[in-house]
Automatic annotation (TrEMBL):
Residues 16-360 form the Beta-lactamase-related domain. It comes from Thiopseudomonas acetoxidans. It is an enzyme of class 3 (hydrolase). Its EC number is 3.1.1.103. Keywords: Hydrolase. InterPro entries: Beta-lactam-related, Beta-lactam/transpept-like, Beta-lactamase/esterase. The lineage of its organism: Bacteria, Pseudomonadati, Pseudomonadota, Gammaproteobacteria, Pseudomonadales. One of its GO terms (molecular function) is hydrolase activity. The keyword Amino-acid biosynthesis does not apply. This is Serine hydrolase domain-containing protein.
Length: 380
């Protein structure tokens, strides 16, 4: 398998590990970028980007990184806090009056950011086409009662996170979340990151597909069993509307502005985002510290495993093999469904992104990305 791109000689073991991943059966294409103190030390890619195996992965290939985009959504929200347009302790209903019903009156912006609001799913069964109707989805959330008393527990919001925070951004910032991410993060930093891909960029997108026979681990099997129970909260979180599970290679999904899940980028853009965060180019020091501060830790009511959240990011769990970034105790970031990962290690002044079109079934951090991080750390 030919690997394209650049890596500093001292990171040769990382490039070799990346090549080994792509040589495994069912692996199709991927990219890896590592930046240290603003310098790019690894920027490599390889494999194929289409499902029929004819189109090589290019330097500018984009891929759906799913939940890896959630930290960008959180940063835009925190920028609005920084500008005084939002308050973390204020009820979300202060900015979204229709939200103030059915026990949601006191849910704060901070609780929305840290998955403590009790709104990881919509109970009312929605039609497939509702996924593409922003008004239908936000109205359904207005009519949703919290699944638990807000602030008393946490449960990951895989999709509703995008509509909840995106609606706040739209109401106080005057533009959609996808456009806000573009104007506040991607364009100023020159990052190839899109929530709502432009028609002119659609040809660059890699198709994603599940690895045949992927089993994940015990956590994944437990969550899959819950999702298969139609009335469960997990099923509603991941499969309501049902089109959530079947749309990722459709043009309608790729152009949809759903900032919790439809982010498309290359590894360079995701690593560049985290480096800009570490360098203080996106948030002031106080809000960056709050982003990395533990807000929720313990049993996750949605993912049915232990999670640890800051504001819009997952924090290091050194004692949990499936949830460790393998880069140090201060590491933070976010995995995406199937295996992509973007993260930062402040103590190393390091950012890393691994993006892939070969989707495995792990719930938290994919072993491929974790193994690469272990190799990176050994090379420092």
């Amino acid at each position: 398998m030919n690997i394209e791109g650049y890596f500093a000689p001292e990171f040769t073991p990382v490039a070799e590990a990346f090549a080994q991943i792509l040589q495994q059966p069912e692996q199709r294409g991927a990219a890896l970028c590592v930046q240290i103190a603003g310098d790019t030390v690894i920027d490599i890619w390889g494999g194929i980007q289409d499902r029929v195996g004819q189109q090589p992965w290019q330097r500018d290939t984009l891929v759906n990184v799913f939940s890896c985009g959630k930290p960008l959504l959180a940063v835009v929200t925190l920028q609005l806090v920084q500008e005084g347009k939002l308050q973390l302790e204020a009820p979300a209903a202060d900015y979204w009056p229709e939200f103030a019903v059915l026990g949601k009156e006191t849910i704060t912006v901070r609780q929305l950011l840290s998955h403590q609001a009790g709104l990881p799913a919509i109970e009312q069964q929605l039609p497939a086409e509702a996924l593409y109707d922003w008004y239908a989805m936000t109205e359904a959330l207005e009519q949703q009662q919290p699944w638990w008393p807000p602030g008393t527990a946490h449960g990951y919001a895989p999709m509703t996170y995008g509509w909840l925070l995106g609606e706040l951004i739209q109401r106080v910032g005057g533009r959609s979340a996808g456009k806000a991410i573009a104007q506040r993060i991607s364009e100023p930093l020159g990052l190839d990151f899109y929530v709502g891909v432009h028609d002119s960029d659609l040809a660059r997108i890699s198709d994603t597909s599940r690895i045949k026979g992927a089993q994940g681990d015990a956590q994944a099997q437990r969550l899959l069993q819950a999702i298969m129970q139609p009335q469960s909260m997990a099923s509603r979180a991941f499969a309501n509307p049902p089109s959530m599970l079947t749309s990722s290679n459709k043009q309608q999904w790729r152009t949809l502005e759903q900032p919790a899940a439809t982010g498309h980028c290359d590894a360079r853009a995701l690593a560049g985002f985290y480096m800009a965060l570490l360098q203080g180019r996106l948030l002031d020091a106080e809000l960056l510290a709050q982003m990395q501060q533990e807000h929720a830790y313990g049993a996750d009511k949605t993912l049915l495993t232990t999670t640890r959240f800051g504001l819009g990011c997952m924090l290091e769990q050194a004692d949990n093999a499936s949830a460790s970034y393998a880069l140090g105790v201060q590491a933070f970031g976010h995995p995406g469904a199937g295996g992509s990962l973007g993260c930062a290690a402040p103590e190393l002044e390091l950012s890393m992104a691994f993006v892939t079109n070969s989707l495995d079934l792990y719930v938290l951090i994919d072993p491929r990305a974790q193994w690469l991080n272990k190799q990176i750390k050994q090379c420092l």
